[in-house]
Amino acid sequence: MDFRADNFYAAWRERSRAVLALHEAGPMPPEKLLQAVWQHQRVHRGGLKTLDGKPVRVLHPGFASVEGGPDFRGAVLQFGEAAPVAGDVEIDLQPGGWRAHGHDQNPAFKNVILHVIWNGSPGARSKAQGPETVLALENVLDAPIGELARALENESGLPEALRGKCCAPLRELAPEQLAGLLRSAAKVRFQNKAAAILARAKHCGWEQALWENLFRALGYKHNVWPMLGVAETKSRWAPGADSAFALQARMLGVSGLLPVELTRSQKNTDTFLRRAWDCWWRDRDALADCTLPRTVWKFHGLRPANHPQRRLALAAHWLAAGNLAGKIEGWIAAEIPDQALLDSLQQIFQVKQDEFWSWHWTFQSASMTKPQPLLGEARITDLAVNVVLPWLWTRANEGGSDRIRREVERRFLAWPSAEDNSVLKLARQRLLGAANARSLKGAAQQQGLMQIVRDFCEHSNAVCADCQFPELVRGCVGGEFKPEPVRVKLEPGKSKSERVLNDIISAVV
Ligand code: SF4
User: What residue segments make up the domains of the chain, in order of their start?
Assistant: First the structure.
C-alpha cells in the first residue's frame, strides 16, 4: 500500500464535516486551534522571539487549564539569557484581547508571563497594556495552519512529550505493583485525614469533630473555611432551633448569607426569605459575635448546585434529623456488601425533600419544574473517603477496636470511584499516560494518585525538576517494593518527601 496514493477515507473526511471548522473560520484561525498549536508546540521552537525581539525558549508549554483563568498554567520559559521562569500563558487572537477579555482587571491573570497571539506588531502590546512579553504565532508555525488544523483536531489530552518523567517507569510496573503503590499512597492520605480529625477531636470531642469535617467537605474547595467557621460556632446557634427550617434560618443568618432584600419577582423565594427573617431577627443580636461577613464566601466559578446556601440547608436537615454520629456508627457495624456501600451511606445522608431547596438552586434562580436532590452520589463518595471513614477509623484506632478499624479499611479500599475532576484528569495523563477515567479502579486509587501529586508534583514544576519520584519508581521496576533499593539520597530540605516515600514503602512491604 502506497501511503501517498489517493485515500478514499481521507476524501470522505475532507468532504464531510467539522474538520473544516478549525481552519475555515475566516482570516483568523479559531483560538482553540491556537491553543492546540501551543500545547503541541507546532512551532519552530528554535526561533521564537517576542514582539520586541527577545528570544523565547519553551521548556514546558504548561498544562491546559480547565477551570477558567489563563489558558495554560505552570509553563516554564526562558527569555534571552535570563534564568528560566515558571508562570502562566494566555492565548488570544490579538494583543487587544488582553483588555477586551478583562484580563487586565482579573487577578487570576497576574502570573501570566507570556501572551501568545496570532499576529500583531511590536507597538501593539503597549496599546493593549498586556504582559511585556508577547509572542505572535502566525510566522513561526511548523506547517501551514490548515494542515495543523487537520493534524490537531483529534488530539485531546496531554501530548506524549509532555508527560511526567515518572510516566515511563510507572508504565513498566506490573499492574499489581502499580495498584499496590496507589493503594499505599492512598493509605498515607487516609491516615493524614484521620490524624487531623483526631487532633481536633481531642479539643472539641468526637461529634463536634465530625460536624466540622462534614461542613468543611460541604464547602468544596471554594468555601471550606467559612463553612468550617459556621461549624465551629454550632454550640452557639444550634440550641433551641427545633426544626430544619429554624436551623436553616440561624445558619443563613450566622453565615452572613441571608439576603437583606426580597427578590420582588420570585414569590416562593420572597415567602421563604420573610419566614427566615421572622426567625433570624430574634437571634441576630445574641449571635452577632459569631456572624460571618458575606465577603468571606466565594461565589465565582461555583456551580449552582454547590452554592453554600443550599449546602447549609442540607446540613440543617442532618442536624434536625438528629443522632447522625449514632447512625454512622450503626452503618459501620452492619454487614453491607461492597456493591451496596454507596447506597447504604446515601440513605443516611440524603434528605428526602426540602420545601424550598429541592426546587431552587439559589435564591436568585427560578423554581425548577422537577425537584433536585440536595446531595448527589458523587458527594456521598467525597463525604465517605474524606470524613466518614477517616472519622470512624481514628475512633476505632483510639478505642482499640481492631474489628471496626479493619472493616473501615476494607470499605475504603472497596469504595467505588469518585467523580472525575480536573486534578485527577491531569494526573492520570501526566503520570499514568491514561486519558480514560476507568484506568483508576476505585476511590482509593484516585486518592493515591492525588497524594502523589501533592507529595511530588506540587514540590516540582512542569518539567519535573528535582523530582525524586521517577527514580524511586525505577528502583521497583521488575521487582518487589523493598525499602533499601528504592531509598535515595535526598538533598537537605527534602526530608518531607523522604518521609512520605518511606511511609508508602513501609505500607507496601
Ligand atoms: S513532578 Fe514528579 S511525580 Fe509529578 S509528573 Fe513529574 S516526575 Fe511525576
Answer: 8-162, 207-386
